[in-house]
Write a structure and sequence with these properties.
The chain has about 140 residues and is of the alpha+beta class. The chain contains four helices and four strands.
C-alpha cells in the first residue's frame, strides 16, 4: 500500500480508490445483468444440440427439440401459411383475447390490446397508406 501511496500525488488516493471500486462494481453489475438476460434451456436439453444440421442439406438446421422428427416442419397449422392468416387464427381462437402487450414504464404492469383493436389499427393504417399516399398493393 505504501508504494501505491507514493505513486499517487497528494490527495488522489481516495478518488483513485473510489474510481477503482466504482469500476469493479459496474463490471459486477454488468456481468450479473448479462447472466440474467440469458435464455435458460428447459431441463434435459443439451446446449450443444439446440440446432441440428440436416443430413441431406448442409447449412440447413432444424430444432433440437424435434428429436423424433427427421423432416423440418413447414407449418404448425395447416390453414396458416402467412403472417396474416396466423393473426386471423389468433383472433378466432382467442375469442378477441389479448394480442399485444406493452409496459408504460419499467416497473409498471403490462397493458394489453385486444386482437380486434390491433386489427382495426392495422386496417386504418393500411387505408391511410392507400388513400392518403397512393400506396398500391
Amino acid at each position: 500500500m505504501s508504494s501505491l501511496v507514493s505513486f499517487l500525488p497528494g490527495g488522489l488516493l481516495v478518488p483513485a480508490l473510489a474510481a477503482f471500486g466504482s469500476i469493479l462494481y459496474a463490471i459486477s453489475r454488468w456481468r450479473k445483468g448479462a447472466e440474467s438476460n440469458q435464455v435458460r434451456l428447459a431441463t434435459g436439453i443439451n446446449r450443444d444440440r439446440q440446432a441440428i444440421e440436416m443430413e441431406d442439406e448442409p447449412g440447413v438446421y432444424r430444432s433440437g427439440l424435434l428429436v423424433d422428427q427427421k423432416e423440418p416442419m413447414s407449418k404448425f397449422y395447416e390453414e396458416v401459411d402467412t403472417l396474416y392468416t396466423a393473426f386471423l387464427r389468433g383472433l378466432e381462437v382467442s375469442s378477441n383475447g389479448d394480442c399485444l402487450g406493452y409496459r408504460p414504464g419499467a416497473k409498471q404492469n403490462y397493458h394489453f390490446i385486444s386482437y380486434t383493436d390491433v386489427f382495426r389499427a392495422a386496417r386504418d393504417f393500411g387505408s391511410a397508406l392507400t388513400g392518403q399516399f397512393g400506396v398500391k398493393y
